[in-house]
Write a structure and sequence with these properties.
Blueprint (H helix, E strand, L loop, with lengths): L16 E4 L5 E6 L5 H9 L3 H8 L6 H14 L3 E8 L2 E10 L5 E8 L8 H15 L4 E7 L3 H9 L5 E4 L3 E7 L4 H23 L3 E5 L8 H12 L4 E5 L5 E2 L2 E2 L12 E4 L3 H14 L3 E4 L9 H16 L3 E3 L5 E4 L6 E4 L7 E8 L2 H14 L3 E6 L8 H10 L5 E6 L5 H12 L4 E5 L4 H10 L7 H11 L2 E2 L3 H13 L7 E6 L2 H13 L3 E2 L4 H10 L10 E2 L6 H12 L6 E6 L7 H12 L11 E6 L9 E3 L2 E3 L1 E2 L2 H19 L10 H17 L4 E2 L2 H10 L7 E4 L2 H11 L3 E5 L13 E5 L2 H12 L8 E5 L5 E10 L3 E8 L4 H4 L2 E5 L4 H10 L4 H5 L8 H17 L3 E11 L4 E3 L2 E5 L24
Parallel strand pairs: 5-6, 9-10, 9-13, 13-14, 14-15, 18-19, 18-20, 20-21, 21-22, 23-24, 23-25, 23-26, 26-27, 27-30
Antiparallel strand pairs: 1-2, 2-3, 3-4, 4-5, 6-8, 7-8, 11-12, 16-17, 16-19, 28-29, 31-41, 32-35, 33-34, 33-35, 36-37, 36-39, 37-38, 39-40, 39-41
Length: 918
């Protein structure tokens, strides 16, 4: 039985941050404090002889105490940093670094209790220590290891840090920079994915389930959970818990969870006021995991959120994971488990889709429609308030679950969008993710805030997030399930060419229109293929796309045409339509598709992604079985197109090579840091940077602004123009003026001293307090864009690109990407613009340098990622030439913000407190 985990009560130290160990169980990581002395000494004393030898290079008995007594005073003096891992009230691991005489260097030491040596605590502590060290201006770790200390070298090698080593006689000197690079972050995500999959996998594969609050009435949620467990044929033991009931559905009821032998999963269905006491009893009883169906928590306001936080704290102390509260339950359809711990009236059908929904009501609707569409589920989680387990957990589980081929998500909030992006990008490279986000409209946001304690999300940010990480975003529950049905049953298309075969003309035309609207391209058949169709169906109405075989076509001819087109190499996907006409009954149509699309020798999958449209309300909408796969069936052509369009887009994303985001050189960060720190010292509340500071900040990341000179008067403006060279631009220098053109503060195309004098006089007469004039060399003509950065309160920095110039707001043609972004992300953002053809050379104009724009966007992303103090960057216009770009005007606004590096650490979501996102 697992005991109660320490959370800082009774000592001076901070509350630990909960983390998952490699086996999916929970530990706490926190700073070491002087009160830990006895625990730390015990940790060293309890090492095996081999562990002690590897730590101190000999078997001296008192080295642990001496090391601890040397380390703890250094912590208070800022000479050292130390993190400990705590399990069951015991310190089971320590990672420390002590500054050396070399600036920016610290000596690293790691020790893990023998029984936790294989649980991944060393790398967990190393990650947390590296973040703390970076904040304390430590740039490099050095460690001295025995040459035969294979476990320590494994930790270093798998950490993701750039390791260098120098062998000595019996030891090896190991060094590495502590910055969390993309490589380190990817290694962290991989380890977290394995640990989280083990944790969630244990919850979804329990050997015993207790249902607390299971009543006699059919409408009681606990009663329904017991009924569903029995109906599904759960392979483990079921224990109803209700002190007022002796038997339920043939099972003996227990008065308390304390009467039941330790169970793996407890489903709690009692009033909200009783849940905390029940969770405490579960902790004492050694329950491993919890599903809390009860409502009345964070979704009701601050008091409910406080109660929810207290419940989560108790669960974490006992090492229990939590689904909910305010949820529908969980299910796992694996035949070896057959877990249906939901109170849904709908049976969870077996299949290959892992599904998570926040709303219980949406979950019931999703399961109902999934059953209608024949979408089978591998696992199902209703997350509710997401106190603990969230969409990120399901992504990590699905990545490791062989039974899952597609993930479907309904979300109302993002707790950690940055982590979602990394996890989704990794998973989507192998398994598609279909996601529906509720609360993107203003009305929807108000409803979401009051429904499952969700945070406001930005639709632009969500779209950017999905575009970058390959998530298939959909507009409604129906499209989510229809698209999921295609992905779960059909191969990915190799392109956007769609073929349409019908037994009537009108539906084929409607299908063609719908496909064009969904971004698909109607296939053009070759003369040979059209001739072959005419041979098979001589009286076909049309042998061009959309193919109309006529009202008299029978199933044999229909099957032959579909088979021939599907294998012609001239289509990437196929829509087979049936209008209810006597010559082609539903049974005949289904027979035709089974024969046409059955696997031929050498084929392991259907020849192309195929869906059917049956315009007949009397016919079933379930998929048509065709050997070892199923053909999704839709009621209307528009549904088929709306399902196939996102699938084609996902296939294109998946075919692209994966590229890591580039990083700025450390020298660049130092130069930019000087500008940011200097400005915020002068204006701690935030400010707009002056033009010289803007140029210096951007130049540190390779972004040049057109040369300009700040002047005070008319004649100085003339001198500056002579020095820069004509033609020039004269404009107001005040950084607080957001749109100089709107106030008459810009004069362009000035080609002589007299023109500069007149322009300077006019600009200086603009009403307001001015900080002088800027005289700038005028850029040559080109395509005008806008680029910049904006901080989203939930998603962090977003890089923007769009149509620029004076009409940028009017045109409203913009695309966003989250940081960090790579060249492929930047290219995709440009391609999304309606005005993108201008860059390719529009109406005879020469093509512009799109590559230079991509480089600019990547550089902006690096800058915004490195400096959370940057609230906004506005580059407008950015003129794109045949070669290179000219940044004409640049504005930067700063705000006070802490370094945003700890969010990348592996940790479980903590109790959040009033007003925070759950």
């Amino acid at each position: 039985m697992r005991g109660q985990m320490e959370v800082g009560a009774g000592e001076a130290g901070p509350t630990p941050e909960d983390v998952l160990m490699r086996d999916g169980t929970i530990a706490g990581i926190r700073d070491a404090v002087p009160a830990d002395r006895e625990r730390l000494v015990a940790l060293h004393d309890e090492l095996s002889d081999l562990g002690r030898y590897r730590r101190f290079f000999h078997l001296g008995r008192f080295d642990g105490a001496r090391f601890v007594d040397d380390l703890l005073p250094r912590l208070g003096r800022g000479e050292a940093i130390a993190k400990v891992a705590v399990v069951d009230g015991r310190v089971v691991a320590l990672a420390s670094c002590t500054r050396t005489e070399i600036g920016g260097e610290a000596e690293l030491a790691l020790v893990v209790a023998d029984r936790f040596a294989e649980n991944g605590l060393a790398t967990l502590l190393l990650e947390h220590l590296a973040v703390a060290a970076t904040e304390a201006d430590v740039m490099e770790f050095v460690s001295y290891l025995l040459a035969d200390n294979a476990p320590a070298f494994d930790v270093m090698r798998h950490s993701g840090f750039e390791i260098t080593s120098v062998p000595h006689q019996e030891t090896v000197e190991v060094r590495f920079p502590v910055r969390l690079t993309e490589r380190v972050l990817e290694a962290m995500i991989e380890r977290e994915q394995q640990a989280d999959a083990a944790s969630l996998g244990a919850m979804l594969r329990p050997r015993s389930v207790a249902v607390i609050g299971a009543g006699r009435r059919d409408e009681n949620p606990g009663h329904q959970v017991v009924r569903n467990l029995l109906r599904a044929g759960f392979t483990g033991d079921v224990h109803p818990v209700n002190p007022h009931c002796d038997f339920l559905l043939g099972l003996r009821c227990h008065r308390s969870i304390l009467e039941v032998a330790p169970v793996d999963l407890a489903v709690i269905a009692v009033p909200a006021a009783e849940v905390l006491g029940i969770v405490r009893e579960c902790a004492r009883a050694g329950v491993r995991d919890l599903v809390i169906l009860s409502s009345g928590f964070a979704e009701t306001g601050p008091e409910g959120r406080r109660l929810q936080d207290e419940i989560l704290t108790v669960a974490r102390r006992a090492g229990m994971r939590v689904v909910g509260p305010n949820c529908l339950g969980i299910a796992n359809t694996d035949p070896e488990v057959r877990l249906d711990a939901t109170f849904s009236p709908i049976t969870v059908g077996h299949g290959r889709v892992a599904m998570m929904v926040q709303s219980g009501a949406v979950g019931i609707a999703a399961l109902q429609r999934a059953e209608d569409l024949g979408v089978g589920v591998s696992s199902f989680i209703s997350a509710g308030n997401k106190a603990d387990i969230s969409g990120n957990d399901l992504l990590m589980y699905a990545a490791e679950d062989d039974a899952t081929e597609v993930v479907a998500l309904y979300l109302e909030s993002f707790g950690n969008p940055r982590k979602f992006s990394r996890l989704a990008r990794r998973l989507a490279a192998h398994k598609p993710i279909v996601a529906l986000v509720g609360g993107s409209s203003q009305t929807g946001r108000r409803g979401a805030v009051g429904h499952t304690a969700s945070a406001v999300t930005s639709s632009a940010a969500v779209e950017a997030l999905f575009e970058q990480c390959g998530v298939i975003g959909v507009d409604g529950l129906e499209q989510m399930l229809q698209t999921t049905s295609v992905l779960a049953n059909q191969p990915l298309p190799g392109g956007r060419r769609v073929g349409i075969v019908s037994n009537a003309g009108g539906p084929g035309i409607l299908a063609a229109d719908a496909c064009e609207g969904a971004g698909l391209r109607l296939s053009t058949l070759s003369e040979e293929t059209m001739a072959r169709i005419r041979e098979i169906v001589p009286d076909a109405s049309s042998v061009q796309m959309p193919v109309d075989l006529g009202s008299g076509v029978g199933w044999e001819a229909y099957a032959e045409v579909v088979s021939m087109i599907a294998r012609s190499g001239e289509v990437d996907m196929l829509i087979a339509l049936r209008t209810p006409l006597p010559a082609l009954s539903y049974a005949a149509f289904a027979r035709a598709l089974r024969i046409a699309l059955r696997a031929l020798p050498g084929e392991t999958t259907p020849p192309v992604a195929t869906v059917a449209v049956i315009l007949d309300t009397h016919c079933p909408s379930r998929p048509i079985s065709a050997g070892n796969h199923h053909i999704p069936v839709f009621a209307f052509p528009e549904d088929a197109a709306r399902a196939l369009g996102p699938v084609a887009g996902y296939a294109e994303w998946r075919a692209q090579p994966r590229r890591a985001a580039a990083e700025a050189a450390s020298g660049s960060r130092e130069a930019a840091r000087d500008v940011v720190d200097r400005a915020l010292r002068t204006a701690p509340e935030g400010c707009r940077l002056a033009a010289p500071d803007v140029r210096q900040l951007l130049a540190a990341y390779g972004i040049g602004v057109l040369p300009s000179v700040l002047v005070d008067g008319v004649e100085e403006a003339v001198d500056a123009a002579e020095w820069l060279g004509y033609p020039v631009v004269v404009k107001l220098a005040d950084p607080e003026v957001a749109h100089r053109t709107d106030v008459g503060g810009v004069r362009t195309g000035l080609g002589s001293p007299d023109e500069v004098r007149v322009a300077a006089h006019e600009v200086l007469r603009v009403p307001g307090k001015h900080a002088g004039l800027l005289v700038q060399r005028q850029a040559s003509a080109g395509v005008e864009l806008i680029a910049g950065v904006v901080q989203d309160p939930v998603f962090g920095p977003l890089v923007m690109v769009g149509y620029g110039g004076a009409y940028t707001e009017l045109i409203g043609d913009r695309s966003f990407r989250l940081t960090p972004l790579n060249r492929a992300d930047a290219a995709a953002a440009l391609a999304e613009l309606r005005t993108a053809p201008l860059l390719a050379g529009y109406r005879g104009l020469p093509p512009a340098d799109a590559g230079a724009v991509e480089h600019l966007l990547v550089s902006l992303g690096r800058l915004a990622d490195d400096f959370p103090e940057i609230a906004e960057i506005d580059l407008n216009p950015v003129i794109v030439h045949e070669r290179g770009v000219s940044v004409v005007d640049a504005k930067v606004r700063l705000h006070p913000a802490p370094p945003a590096i700890a969010s990348d650490l592996r940790s479980l979501r903590a109790p959040v407190g009033p007003g925070a996102d759950t």
